Amino acid sequence: MIVIGIDPGYAIVGIGVVEYNGNKFRPISYGAITTDAAMPTVDRLKRIYDEMTTLIDKYQPDAVAIEELFFNSNQKTAINVAQARGALLVAVKNKNIPIYEYTPLQVKQSVTGYGRADKTQVQQMVKMLLNLNVIPKPDDAADGLALAICHAHSSKINNMFDLNRVK
After folding, report:
1. Do 124 and 167 touch, CB atoms closer than 8 A?
2. What crossing angle do the helices spanning 104-112 and 119-129 adopt, rounded to 10°?
3. From the candidates 51, 101, 140, 143, which is the catalytic residue?
4. CA distances for 147 relative to 2, 43, 141, angstroms
5. 50 a catalytic residue
6. Is residue 143 flagged as an active site residue?
7. What three-state secondary structure class fits 36?
8. Averaged pLDDT, groups of 10, the chain, 167 residues long
9. How far apart are the C-alpha atoms of 78 and 116, rounded to whole Å?
């Protein structure tokens, strides 16, 4: 099973592509979709949509795992990230790939075994689980990989009960 994990953002979208087979992980790719702050909003959203579409075409995932949004402060940032997340969801939906949503707590629990793990603990576990030499950079890419790992760990339950799937 190939899973693309997405950490949604407006300036940086973290992407992690992982193959999960027989309880073993193989990292395929990771990185980020970036947009320049000087670009108009609609151009930034188009870039995010187009690059996500290209990644889906390239890796042909069986599923996409995306982080649910959680904001407690900056409303402008929340709106921009929500718009970018919408562009990502439409890109995936247009390719008929199943989409699964996970909270940050679910991702941390799945990757580290502890729902209150800090960013460094998650990054170290991603590095270890994927047998990487270094922690993936940017941090958003490590988060994308963590989302893909989370979905792989949850895939049997998700397939049985359709939990976390976007309808």
Report:
1. no
2. 50
3. 140
4. 12, 26, 10
5. no
6. no
7. coil
8. 97 97 95 97 98 98 93 76 97 97 95 93 97 96 97 71 62
9. 22
67 is annotated as an active-site residue: yes
CA dihedral (69, 132, 2, 91) positive or negative: positive
Q: Name the catalytic one among 50, 57, 62, 67.
A: 67
Entry pTM:
0.92
Q: SS3 helix, strand, coil % of the chain, rounded to 5? A: 50, 20, 30
Catalytic residue (choose from 7, 51, 101, 143): 7
The CB-based long-range contact list for 151-155 (8 Å cut-off, 24+ gap) reads 151/3, 151/5, 151/63, 151/65, 151/100, 151/102, 152/1, 152/3, 152/18, 152/20, 152/25, 153/110, 153/111, 154/100, 154/102, 154/106, 154/110, 155/1, 155/3, 155/20, 155/63
Which of the 8 DSSP states describes residue 95? T
Q: Which residues of 23-33 are buried (b: 16+ CB within 10 A; e: fewer)?
A: eebebbebbbb
DSSP assigned state of 13: E
Say how many CA atoms lie within 13 Å of 145 toward its Cβ. Answer: 28
pLDDT given at position 159: 54
